[in-house]
Amino acid sequence: MTDLTALSVKIFADGANLPGMLDLYRRPYIKGFTTNPTLMRQAGITDYAAFAREVLEAIPDRPISFEVFSDEFADMECQARRIAAWGANVYVKIPVSNTRGEPSYDLVRRLSHDGLRLNVTALMTLAQVEAVADALAGGAPSCVSVFAGRIADTGRDPVPLMTDALRLMRRAPAAELIWASPREVLNIFQADAIGCHIITVTHDILKKVSTLGKPLDEFSLETVKMFHDDAVSARFGV
Fold first, then answer.
1. Which end of the chain has fewer CB atoms < 10 Å from its terminal CB, N or C?
2. Is the pTM of this model over 0.90?
3. What is the pLDDT of residue 38?
4. Which CATH entry fits the domain spanning 4-212: 3.40.50.280, 3.20.70.20, 3.20.20.70, 3.90.226.10?
5. Which stretches does DSSP call E strand in the chain?
C-alpha cells in the first residue's frame, strides 16, 4: 500500500506550525488537523486566539481541534464555549481529567449535549473510553483520542486495546475513535486495519510518507551511502 488516499482511516495532521499546516492542507489525504498547547508552545505561539483565527481563516473546510487550558471545570466550560464559537469546523479538545485526576465526564456530557463538537483527549484505558462514550452518547458529533503511541511506550501492544475501544465506541455512534500519538508510519496502517476512524500524525512522521513502498535494497544502499558521506564529512579516522 503506497496510496494513502485509498485508506479508510482518516489522517489528521497534528501540529501548530502554520506554514506546515498549509502545506499539508494541499495534500488530499489530510482530512483534518489537531493542535494542543504543548505543540503551540514549541512553535513559539504566544497569542492562542489570534493563531487559531489565522488557521481557521486559511483552513475553513476541515475539522480542526483546539484545546482548553484551564484546570478547573467551570473555566474549561467557559473556554470551550468561546473556542467552539470560532468556527463551524472547530472541535474543542477537553482532557479526560484535570491535573488532580478528577474526570471530566460530566463536563463532556453537558457540552456535547449542548451541541459542541468535542475531541476528548489523553485517554489511555478502556474504562476511560467506556465512560467518555457514555457521556457522548446522544450528543453532537465528537472524537475520542486514545493515546496509542504512549501506550506502546509502556511496552503494551496498543492494537488489542484500540480494537476493544472501537467496540465500546458503538454506544456513541456519532463519535469517532482517534489513534493518537503514533510513533511511526506503520501505525497508520495498523489503525486502518482495525477500522479506527482517525489517526493524528505529526508533521515529522508525515515527512516519512515518501518512503512508502520504497524497495528495501534501494533503501539499504541509501543508508550505507548516508553513513559513508557523514563519516567523510566528519573527517573521521582511526
1. C
2. yes
3. 92
4. 3.20.20.70
5. 10-14, 30-34, 64-67, 90-95, 118-123, 142-146, 175-179, 198-202
